[in-house]
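W.,

You were right to be curious about this one. When I first looked at the sequence I had no strong expectations either way, so I just let the prediction run and decided to look at it fresh. Below is the sequence, 123 residues in total, followed by the output.
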Amino acid sequence: QVQLVESEGGSVQAGGSLTLSCAASGRAFSTYGMGWFRQVPGKERDVVATIILSGAGTWYADSVKGRFTISRDNTNNTVYLQMNTLKPEDTAVYYCAAAPSYIDYFVRRYHYWGQGTQVTVSS
């Protein structure tokens, strides 16, 4: 199976920036689509941003559009989430995930998940 290892999150002030990374083991065809999700206790796990293998196609939740940027480096099988202008409502546990194929990505079927990392944004 694919293993996903996330970097540590952290605590920042509102308006600050933070970048998360997620390193994937395994072959590239097992990580056709990559995504970042976040979850607050008592709420649904929501998709934040997604990207396909080529990097040409990206998608962002409206709540982060214009502030967050997802990217990937296929030479080291790593996906990044650059978060700018952070808000307190961005506070959550962030997870990276992999969709092995085009079909999985298309229907948002993510088979592999990182361990989760806490991001806290203070007012």
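Here's what jumped out at me. The chain is about 5% helix and 50% strand. And, maybe more interesting for your project: The helical segments are 102-106.

Coffee later to discuss?

I.
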